[in-house]
Amino acid sequence: MTDTSPLTTGGEIGYLRIATEEAYGPPELFDLYRKLLETTDDIGFRSLMGHYLTSDAERPRFVRDRLQDAGEKRLSEMDAAGVDHAVLALTSPGTQVLADDDAREIATITNDRIAEATATYPARFSGLAAVGFGDVPAAVKELDRAVSSLGLKGLICNSHIKGHYLDEARFFPLLEALESLGVPLYLHPNTPNNDMIKPLYEAGLDGAIFGFGLETAMHLLRMITAGVFDRFPRLKVVVGHLGEALPYWLYRLDYMHAGQVKANRYEAIKPLELKISEYFRRNIWLTTSGMPWAPTIMYAREVVGADRVMYAMDYPYEYVPDEVRMQDALPLEPAELKQFYQDIAIEVFGLDEAVLTGG
């Protein structure tokens, strides 16, 4: 029988529910997106934002309204779902589709607004920094400001940057800054770029149903196989949706990568210090955003480690309080549920437990 009792906050159940992939966007961003829709040839952007910014269907209206709120409306819906704390981050596709000047401006606005929300509601919100990835020196500077001065807890990257990926050497100063600051990168989905999206778009599979995960999984794999985590061994990466299906592939990825190295088949494939699967146990954490199903959560915990899988809701794109009940009902001991909902997030994002608990 499904539990229909009210979900509560405050930790009386033995843990705080910390949601770690919760989207936000300032109104200025959506003004720029509306202008961009008039001129862009980016198929994925037109598909994603053309829907969420123009459709009158119930779900896109809900999403675009809630994305812009970092106050009482969001808090009331967190309360109704029993979510104690949300890690806010700039919604996809973030700054990645914007011109450099606009990207820098939106990143600054977003970071200031999220910082204001966290200062107003410190027990309820923390946040990740946004940057304009096209101007890497400016991005490094803004990341440092956001973390060191504003108190933000990491960096959001909404996957590809106009078809470019973080394994490219020009982005290494930003990865070096993340490692030096000791904060994580959250690698969040985006629609695939024009070079890979067409067969997905034709089938209606370009978005969250499949294309998001496909594109983001490829991005993370590129980072691993390019040796990014050998160059930056202390870099922390968080990826949602239970790792975009990659945990299911780990044996095959290890096996095939070893064969490619031995055959010297591709210039891009070089020996690594670890197996692909081992980077998941050293550098990568997964969240359950949009993936509340017990069999998949338990499988991910088994193959990457229980200390690598934490809770997320994916608000407002997926706001289903019953999914919280599904995860409360995981076959875990109370201490394991506390680790899953609370402790891992505190450790990875460097949250202040005393602030969260009012201590």
From TrEMBL:
The keyword Acetylation does not apply. The keyword Phosphoprotein does not apply. It comes from the Bacteria. GO terms for molecular function: carboxy-lyase activity; hydrolase activity. InterPro entries: ACMSD, Amidohydro-rel, Metal_Hydrolase. Transmembrane segments: none annotated. Keywords: Hydrolase, Lyase. Residues 75-351 form the Amidohydrolase-related domain. One of its GO terms (biological process) is secondary metabolic process. GO terms for cellular component: cytosol. This is Amidohydrolase.
